[in-house]
Amino acid sequence: MSNTLKVPTMAELLAQGKQPEVLFWVGCAGSFDDRAKKITKAFVKILNKANIEFAVLGAEESCSGDPAKRAGNEFLFQMQAMMNIQVLDGYEIKKIVTTCPHCFNTLKNEYPNLGGNYEVMHHTQFLKALLNEGRLKVEGGKFKGKRITYHDPCYLGRANNEYQAPRDLLKKLEVELIEMRRCKSQGLCCGAGGAQMFKDAEPGEKEINIERTEEAIETSPSIIATGCPFCNTMVTDGVKFKKKEGEVEVLDIAEMIINADEL
Amino acid sequence: MQYIPNILFLILLLVGSGFFVKNSKKIIRNIKLGYKGNDLDHKKERWTNVFRIALGQSKMVVRPIAGILHVVVYVGFVIINIEVLEIIIDGLFGTHRIFSGLGTLYNILIASFELLAFLVLVSVIIFWIRRNIKRIKRFLSPEMKGWPKNDANIILYFEMVLMSLFLIMNATDYQLQILGAEHYTKAGSFPISSFLLPLFENLSQSSLIILERSAWWLHITGIFIFLNYLYLSKHLHILLAFPNVYYGSVSPKGKFKNLESVTNEVKLMMDPTVDPFAAPAEGVSVPAKFGASDVLDLSRTQLLNAYTCTECGRCTSNCPASQTGKKLSPRKIMMDTRDRLEEIGKNIDTNGVFIPDNKQLLGDYITKEELWACTTCNACVESCPVSIDPLSIIMDMRQYLVMEQSAAPNELNIAMTNIENNGAPWPYNQMDRLNWKNE
Lengths: 263, 439
Description:
The complex is a heterodimer of chains A (about 260) and B (about 450). In chain A, about 40% of the residues lie in helices and about 10% in strands. Chain A is α/β, with parallel strands linked by helices and about 260 residues long. In chain A, β3, α6 (about 100-110) and β4 (about 120) form a beta-alpha-beta unit. Chain B contains 18 helices and no strands. Chain B has helices at about 5-30, 45-55, 65-95, 105-130, 145-180, 195-200, 205-230, 235-245, 260-270, 300-310, 315-320, 320-325, 330-350, 360-365, 370, 380-385, 390-405, 410-420. The interface between A and B is large, with 73 and 71 residues.
């Protein structure tokens, strides 16, 4: 299965004198986290299937700087950003797609101030564009009619006002989308943002991911869909905490699309 | 002798507005203690926001009950103020209902003022019930104990009394018009206060005049007192909401401020042609302090935010940290910022210039625990009906903690060291970034 993945790097394409249509920015979670790697691979499979000419930076990619910036370490953030911008500009990259809303937001909104100007898309936006252009087909398959709720990642939703693209893809999958009480601009955070992913929460009555997962479970979904590797981890942990892992799956929309016609 | 009321009124007008102007100048001075931000771009978008969010109250109605009641009070406040203009002219020149020459239009105006006054009265009573009997959770947070709670109720009592006086004034005036009293020319239409007429039917003309004059004087005096209560209170939002929305962010919420001072340093570090041993050039200023430890490190917009906050608590009730019992409350961040700024303002009033008082926003008002509980999810920013940004203050203070004090939580220091060393918040080798491809 895995050896069928075609994942060219920018360096390889450069050697062949080629320029890809889009750079896939994998991100730290997508590169190293076991759960998130599955999302990365699912997205690559879709790209391969749709014959999209893309490339990754591979070992030349580095942290976008998001956790440093949100933790207040502007120095470290800007160091990371400027190094990344040098690499990106070195390859004359114009368009970037990423499966991580944190990388998406940082590349799109924080890099222009430091001289990095790219067209940056979240993978749900990119996939929706492929659909609209007729370059990708999405059918319900095994998700048709299933009760699914969608958790809005803060850095895709509130931070960048993208609520529709992921929902349009779910609609294409012919699922029964049940919204949580707090959704879209009113959506509740999973608890990972602002570098919280890398530290324990402050003392309180409850963990944020439990609060969010409970709300998701109230909709009695068979799948909680999301579009962020960190939200995925937080909600997966929440589902385990509620001992619901037998009934509820937590999936990225890219995974749903690639899995729809398997079975 | 006959001009005594006019003179008294002139004194009331001058004292009432004089004090207001004097104290407003202090607030403006305090706001100007902040640094000038770059928020003068996108003029068209800013005006659109003022019309949509401030004038149009678009974000208030996200919570329909509170929102609609607030729209009633807001419209009432704005429109009934046309009547205040008439009252001022009548007061200065001893006229009776100077605008009555407008005829039918005048009747329509007075009738709508009455309807609005009644609706405002009802809404304000519901507001009071929500705060004191229904005890809605967001009004009961720890930061709302004491003065903030009393402040909210005092505002509601003010409005109840002012609206009642307005209706009593109209009812007695109407009764005097019916009796054909001298000076009380027939003018106006009184759909609400006419219901109060039975209360005054058996009173003599002179008692009625005393009642009418008392209500009239108390009403306008009350308005001037209320005007001078504003700057002591969270109620200042009725004025500051408009400039605050204008200066609010017009960028995507995910875009945080870029620290230019850091950019300059980083560029120097990355420039291979820079001589690392060179003495700093003449006239180059010392690098600015990074982040904020006190209100004087914040921008004017952030300080305006603090004065604009009316403590409605929508931010706090939507904040994931607050909702799960953490100490962070975005509303408290705004209240602390305002309280500290007021403290500095009073220091300047007393000493002429600010004399350091060994206190600061960080630590004395806002704790690290609050700052580190934030997930930067923007729920507070999204929920504010007047475009206040508590997150930007939290971020500025985190920057101070990390870049000036190296006081990040240890786990974050580890993550940041990893980013520095191997380009990821976890201790994985950058060379292994593509390993997933073959797994």
